Each structure stands twice: as structure tokens, then as C-alpha cells.
Amino acid sequence: MNAFDVLGDPVRRRILMALAESERRSGDIVEIVQGEFGISQAAVSQHLKILRDSGFARVKVDEQRRIYSLDSRPLQEVDEWLDRFRAFWEPKLGALDTEIARGKKMRQTKGQPEGQPEGQPKA
Amino acid sequence: MNAFDVLGDPVRRRILMALAESERRSGDIVEIVQGEFGISQAAVSQHLKILRDSGFARVKVDEQRRIYSLDSRPLQEVDEWLDRFRAFWEPKLGALDTEIARGKKMRQTKGQPEGQPEGQPKA
DNA sequence: TCCTTGTATAATAAAATGCTTGTATAATTG
DNA sequence: CAATTATACAAGCATTTTATTATACAAGGA
Q1: Which nucleotides of C are covered by protein (CB under 7 A)?
Q2: Which part of the chain is the HTH arsR-type domain (chains A, B) (predicted)?
């Protein structure tokens, strides 16, 4: 299952968000997800398996508990995949300036950064 | 269909990459996809419909042709969604420095930027 | 040892996805 | 106007995904 397919499911995205905050015991994840999605423990466990198998999460056994933690590598890959499209929303500036402007835009601006009329970026 | 589900399909990712390069006539997209995936014109048309409906592509009618172009908004949203995970692979530096380091890491470093042992980021 | 707790796995049903073939529609050309 | 070209839509089917229920299994406590 490719990274995007993994991220396609809202339950899995929720789990990843929880893991981004801190590592969690399987039971805690079940609780969070059940509270918001109302699905069974088995269903959550299956999502956790997908996250493990696809490299988004790691498990550590602690007696009869399983502690899940985030592995951000696949997310980084998604981020890298997006690189080829960034020119569409990043201002087209010089090397260093681009680096600076980039993060700023992304964190603050919610409205469109008015780049090109989206025909395609100037490069 | 959510943005990640849309991106989950390799044919659709391929189409988006083609559109990132330049706008294209439907027929050209069909040709590209058929060359690489060997699926029918109808199948490609269905993927194009999904891209339209989910906001990733726009169409312009040109006589009996349809010209597709990229709409990067949904991709930007994915990029923004990733923000909450960036601390895992971005060095934890001061405001401005972070902006600078960020793009650099992402474009050059292929090996892991050895941040935390991924427990979770410091800040 | 037996029960409880925490978690995973198996079987299966239901829903969603992606493809195919066939056809409709619109504009273009002979 | 009939034929052709470019593209979309519809129905049907196979595959995949996600959930359910039932069960297994390991660790710890009574």
C-alpha cells in the first residue's frame, strides 16, 4: 500500500496526528479513535497494522502493551514528492530568498499567495 | 473523495505531473497514460473526472478539445497538512534559520537529517 | 492455575474503486 | 447531411478496502 493510500483514510490520519504529539499505547489510540469514529478495537488494530507495514509507525513491546511511535520517513517522502509542484504556490525568488519566503508563506498566508494564474509557474 | 485518496492512484499522480509541466489536451493525456499504464481512453477520462471533481484540475473547452490544467490548491492543502509533522525532519533552529535550513535539507539531503531518534521533536 | 487485561489475527460481509465495453454528444470535415 | 474525431458517460464486473464478530495468545494478578 503506497503512502498516499495510507493517508487516504481519516482514521489513519487521526492516528498519525496523535502519534505526532507523543508515542501512545495501542489502547490509548483505540480510545481516541473510538471516541471520534466509533469503530471497533479490531478495526483500529488493523489500521495500526497498515501503518506498521507501510512504515509510518513503529512498535515497541512493553510487557503486554504495545507502544506506537511515529516514523516520519514516509511523510517526508510525500513532502519531497510535492517538491515538483511547489513552484505553483511559492514565489519565484532567488535561491536564499526563496527558502525564507517559503516557510513564511506556508505558515501565515491562508489566502492564495497570488502566484501565476496557475497556467504554470515561470520556473 | 479526499485529496489523499485522489493522490493514491498512480495514474492520477502521473497525470498531475504531466499537468505540472504544461496544460494538455485530453487526448495527449490519454496518450501519455496509455503508453505507461495501458488502460483505455474511458478509464483515463474517469480519472480526469475525479481530478476535476476534487479540484486538482480545470478544463477549458477549445472547440471539440478539452484542455486540462493543474489547479494546485489541493496540493497546497496537503502541503499544509504536512506542516504538523515537519518538526520531525526539520532541524530545530531559530525562526529565520529554520526557514533557511528547511529548503536546503529538503532539496539536497537524501539520507536522514538525523534529527531526534524520532521519539518526537523537541519543540 | 484460572481469570482478566491488552492486543492481534481470521473469516467474512458490505462498500468503494478501477477497469472494460458500449454508447452518447458535440464539433469538424468531406 | 453523413462520417469522423475528441471526449464523456453508463452499466457491469472484478478487486480492494474497511468494518464486524469471533477467537487466539501473551502477561500479570488473584
Answers
A1: 5-11, 17-23, 26-28
A2: 1-90
